[in-house]
Design a protein that fits this description.
Elements (H helix, E strand, L loop, with lengths): L7 H11 L12 H10 L3 H12 L3 H5 L10 H10 L3 H15 L22 H21 L15 E5 L16 E5 H8 L3 E3 L5 E3 L1 H5 L4 H6 L18 H10 L4
Antiparallel strand pairs: 1-2, 3-4
Helix pairs in contact: 1-2, 1-3, 1-5, 1-6, 2-3, 6-7
Length: 255
C-alpha cells in the first residue's frame, strides 16, 4: 500500500489536532502541526492540508462562510462521520494513540486522578478512561480560549482549569463535550463550582446576591464583585452551550 495513503490511526490523530487549532492557524509553520508531522513521519505541509480537508467538512465553519481544502478522501469523511461530536470516543481512541507515540503527552500533572471527583466502584480500566477523557477535555477547552481565563484574561496555563458547566456527576454524556467547558482560573473555577458565580445564557457574569450583600473586603471586591454583569470572552470554537449555562443558573448558582 502506498505510503501516501493516510492510515486510520494517522487520521484520528490529525482529527484530534484539528480541534485544538483555530482555522486560521492550521499552516505548516504551526509548532503543533510540526510536532504531529514528526510523530507520524509526514511533512508539516501534509498534516496542514489534512487539517484543511477536515475543515471543509465542518458545518460550524460553513456557517461562518469559511471553506477548507476540497478534494478530501473517503477516509477523511469516514473519520469525520465516526467521531464528529462523538467526544468520548474521539478522546479515548486518539489520546491512547498519542500516548503510544509520545508518552509525555499522557503525563501532564493537571490531569492527575487526584483532581478528579471521587467515583466509587470504578475499576482500573475505567479510571484510566476517565483520566484520558479529562486530559482531552482540558486540551480542547484551553485551546478554544487561547489559554486565557474567559473572565479575567489570565494566561498562565498552570493556573487555568477546564471547568465543567454541568458538573461532572450530573451528566455523564456531557463530560467530554467542549461546549460544556469554560476556561477559568483556579479561583473563579472554584467560585463557579460552588455556585458563587455563574454565566448567563447570553454570556454575562453574575455574582451571587449573598456575596453582593455581604460585608466584602477589598479582595472580594477586586476578585469577584468587580466582574458582576461583565461579559466573558467568547471563543470562536466550542462556545458554551446556552442550555448548559441555563442548567448551571438554575441548579448550581446560589442566586
Amino acid at each position: 500500500m502506498s505510503r501516501n495513503l493516510w492510515q486510520r490511526d494517522e487520521l484520528i490523530l490529525a482529527f484530534n489536532l484539528y480541534y485544538q487549532i483555530p482555522f486560521g492557524k492550521i499552516n505548516a509553520k504551526n509548532p503543533q502541526v510540526i510536532a504531529l508531522a514528526q510523530l507520524i513521519r509526514r511533512s508539516p505541509g501534509a498534516v496542514s492540508f489534512k487539517l484543511s480537508n477536515f475543515a471543509s467538512l465542518d458545518p460550524t465553519l460553513k456557517q461562518r462562510g469559511i471553506a477548507g481544502a476540497s478534494h478530501g478522501s473517503k477516509a477523511d469523511l469516514a473519520i469525520w462521520n465516526e467521531f464528529y461530536n462523538n467526544w468520548e470516543a474521539l478522546a479515548f481512541e486518539s489520546e491512547q494513540l498519542l500516548a503510544k507515540l509520545s508518552p509525555a503527552e499522557a503525563a501532564e500533572p493537571e490531569t492527575s486522578l487526584l483532581e478528579l471527583p471521587i467515583i466509587e466502584g470504578l475499576e482500573r480500566e475505567q479510571l484510566r478512561r476517565v483520566r484520558v477523557n479529562q486530559h482531552f477535555f482540558r486540551k480542547l477547552v484551553l485551546a478554544a480560549y487561547d489559554q486565557r481565563c474567559c473572565i479575567t484574561g489570565l494566561n498562565i496555563p498552570s493556573l487555568l482549569n477546564a471547568s465543567h458547566i454541568i458538573p461532572w456527576a450530573h451528566a455523564a454524556e456531557q463530560r467530554v463535550n467542549p461546549h460544556n467547558g469554560l476556561c477559568l482560573n483556579a479561583l473563579h473555577d472554584r467560585a463557579f463550582d460552588r455556585g458563587l458565580i455563574t454565566i448567563t445564557p447570553d454570556y454575562r457574569i453574575q455574582v451571587a446576591s449573598t456575596l453582593i450583600k455581604s460585608s466584602a473586603n477589598s479582595a472580594t471586591n477586586d476578585l469577584l464583585l468587580a466582574y458582576d454583569q461583565g461579559q466573558i470572552e467568547i471563543p470562536a470554537r466550542f462556545q458554551p452551550d446556552p442550555a448548559f449555562l441555563r442548567y448551571h443558573n438554575q441548579h448550581i448558582f446560589q442566586g
